[in-house]
Design brief:
Strands 2, 5, 8, 9 and 10 form a 5-stranded mixed beta sheet that branches. A 5-stranded antiparallel beta sheet has the order 15-16-17-18-21, with no helix packed on it. Strands 11-12-13-14 form a 4-stranded antiparallel beta sheet, with no helix packed on it. The protein has 2 domains: 119 residues, Immunoglobulin-like (Sandwich), CATH 2.60.40; 133 residues, no CATH class. A hairpin with a 7-residue loop joins strand 8 and strand 9. The radius of gyration is 26 Å and the shape is elongated. The protein has 2 helices and 21 strands. With 290 residues, it is mainly beta. 10% of the residues lie in helices and 47% in strands.
């Protein structure tokens, strides 16, 4: 049976924890609710300081000031990739600051499925408690593989990587993604969004002599997007094209191994914006006199 002294200590501990929580207001939001498995899962933690004094959040060498609690659809914890390090953040009294974190860099989120996550912000000091945010749910989908090709890595005999072009209907929009993996280990090197996709025309894909992948896809009824991606998952180039005189733009591979977009007019966004700015509005026209 609990003694009176232990009861008092317990109530004091609960009171102090509630007081600490009351000094911070914390929220968590994600960039979206549906992700392609392997892409970045961007979370934004916002902290409001109600402590009446400036607070500096930083690691004390043993623990971090920011933690995430990630669970799978069965409520089981998701394994972290390692010890996470978050930089210092100072907040003046009454102010709010946000920290953006890519959860895919900190947790094993390669598998499709349903997940939930909450953040915990620890008050400065060794005896500081923590304020937990709201819990947010999100889903990871495998997407639909449209095109794949294995290629060798220049200067590294025996090593290969695999290019994948995936279609994904996230948030009610059709999107096109690129995924690059290590063929030997299956490790995801990078998965990222190229843009929104109209399937009125099938995407065209080719690999050039420098082992770079080229993707040409229809983004709007009148605009095609040409993206060039290298083996490290970097977007090397991105250009907009419109129809030429002989129909739709085409992605052609030439005898020397180069890949180019033909039968198109390159769309210069900057020039188009400048041209629009020079067009006078109807309200700017001088009144007609007789």
């Amino acid at each position: 049976m609990m003694t009176a002294r232990k009861t008092i200590v317990l109530w004091i501990a609960l009171f102090l924890t509630s007081a600490v929580h009351g000094q911070l207001s914390t929220t968590l939001r994600l960039s979206k609710q549906q992700y392609l498995a392997g892409e970045s899962v961007m979370a934004v933690v916002t902290v409001t300081n109600h402590a009446g004094q400036a607070l500096t959040f930083a690691s004390d060498g043993r623990t971090q000031w920011l933690d995430f609690v990630m669970k799978d659809r069965n409520g089981e914890p998701v394994s972290p990739k390692g010890r996470s390090i978050f930089g210092k953040m100072s907040i003046r009294a009454g102010e709010s600051l946000s920290r953006e974190v890519d959860l895919a860099q900190h947790f094993q989120l390669g598998e499709p499925g349903n997940y939930s996550v909450a953040a915990v912000v620890h008050m400065p000091g060794r005896d500081g408690g923590g304020a937990s945010t709201n819990r947010v749910q999100f889903t990871q989908s495998p997407g639909a593989r449209y095109w794949t090709q294995k290629v060798g890595v220049a200067g590294k005999p025996g090593q290969t990587r695999e290019y994948n072009v995936l279609s994904f209907s996230g948030d009610e929009k059709s999107q096109i993604y690129v995924k690059i993996t290590d063929s030997q280990t299956g490790r995801n090197i990078r998965t990222f969004l190229l843009g929104e996709l109209l399937m009125l025309r099938k995407p065209l894909v080719a690999v050039d002599r420098a082992q770079r992948m080229h993707v040409l896809f229809l983004a709007t009824p009148t605009t095609w997007v040409h993206c060039t991606v290298n083996l490290d998952g970097a977007l090397v180039d991105r250009k907009l094209h419109q129809r030429g005189q002989l129909g739709d733009p085409q992605l052609l591979t030439f005898g020397d191994g180069t890949v180019k977009v033909t039968n198109s007019v390159v769309y210069d966004q900057k020039a188009a914006a400048e041209a629009r700015s020079k067009v006078r509005k109807a309200s700017d026209r001088p009144p007609i006199t007789y």
